Amino acid sequence: MSMTTFNLPDLGEGLTEAVLLSWLVAEGDTIAVDQPIAEVETAKSAIEVPSPYAGVVQTLHGEVGETLEVDKPLITVAAGNDGAGSPAGEDAPGALSYREEERAGTAVPEENQSQGSGNVLIGYGTSESANGRRRRRKRQVPASAAQAAPAKTLLATPGAPAQAPRVSSPLVRKLAREQGVEISSLTGTGPSGLIMRSDVLAAVGGAEGTQPAGTASSAADTDSVTGLAIREQTPVTGIRKAIATKLSQSRREIPEATVWQDADVTQLLDMRAQLKGSGQEAPSVLAFLSRFVIAGLQKHPELNARIDSTEGGETITQFEGVNLGFAAQTPKGLMVPVLRHAEQYSARALHAEIRRLAEAGRAGSLSGKELTGGTFTVNNYGVFGSDGATPIINHPEAAILGIGRIMDRPWAVNGELAVRKVTTLTLAFDHRVCDGGAAGGFLNYVATCMENPATALADL
């Protein structure tokens, strides 16, 4: 019997650590290739780590809540002489590196199906075809292999394996275990019956805020500085740590300036009401704002840029095309999903993509690619009841535009006072990439489009 230690794999996107959310197996359990062994949270998302080895679990390296480093031991497996402890495909002729797959769920090439497990993680998985092209196809599993090992969709729980219900994220399974809910008994309310976090909370009669956010302290725990009892302490890890790091970096490195302008959006809201009244889908205010922002960036490309630091100094890099990010509040904190080549989308298409990405963010299913690569960000903090704000630039971008809530306000129309729907647009920009003239010109253009949307859309 040989011992094999599996290290935490390369999680991609430059990530070097992950927080251990939960173990899905215990020491002494017999596991199969591709069986999920742990749930970890990176700065991007929560994911399951599958085992490339089969055998008996000897040692679990790490405690729940601990931060684990990439390429450090995760689990030790004891394998018999039948080779069950070899990682799938590692010794097979022609098999490729585990780090050559970049997206979960990529199909295994036909010529290598007997060599790879087919279950992949970002930066870790089975082989791909020699020409680098991936083909989407159903994975063919031999009957003998299916009998010998549980499939990827089986829950790693003691006793007879059962078909795992479809859930929105590993955190939903974790919540169900914590609350003592049998997830297979739930009926999902998400798309195609997907089980959501709210379904688990509804089963225990809880509310959205019942899940513990950190480690609760007893009344006996007292803060030495204030003398007050400590209600809760939450380690800054995972996604929350990534948010804090990026915002701090933005404040440290970017000499930002802020300009703002009020805009009468009465016509925009009237146009949306007319679309709804005619039975058509009406893009959201954020979608219209995004469409006008993209047009504004084409007129003022200085803001669709970033500062690159090299040994020779700093360089301003401007881009052809816009990767538009938008701030989205999720149960895990603030995220900025990115819509790549947003200039190719109409207002309706932007509305659909923004909604899709926001739902994926709340479900915890955004990929690393969908959270990186932005060149400009929009932020609708008006949905939280804020009249205005000074948004922090999403480093390393050069600017961010925020919109406050829309209110009835007195407004001069053709020399007479009227009650109009008014909002405040705020632009924070990196003063290194442009001066106030370009920033003010961009903001005024966007505000004018919001005030006269029909005229603006006719030119887009």
From TrEMBL:
Its cofactor is (R)-lipoate. The keyword Membrane does not apply. GO terms for molecular function: acetyltransferase activity; lipoic acid binding. Gene3D superfamilies: 2.40.50.100, Chloramphenicol acetyltransferase-like domain, E3-binding domain. Residues 142-162 have a biased composition (Low complexity). GO terms for cellular component: cytoplasm. InterPro entries: 2-oxoA_DH_lipoyl-BS, 2-oxoacid_DH_actylTfrase, 2-oxoacid_DH_E2_comp, Biotin_lipoyl, CAT-like_dom_sf, E3-bd_dom_sf, PSBD, Single_hybrid_motif. Residues 3-78 form the Lipoyl-binding domain. It comes from the Bacteria. SUPFAM superfamilies: CoA-dependent acyltransferases, Peripheral subunit-binding domain of 2-oxo acid dehydrogenase complex, Single hybrid motif. Its EC number is 2.3.1.-. Residues 79-169 are annotated as: Disordered. Keywords: Acyltransferase, Lipoyl, Transferase. Residues 167-204 form the Peripheral subunit-binding (PSBD) domain. Belongs to the 2-oxoacid dehydrogenase family. This is Dihydrolipoamide acetyltransferase component of pyruvate dehydrogenase complex. The lineage of its organism: Bacteria, Bacillati, Actinomycetota, Actinomycetes, Micrococcales.
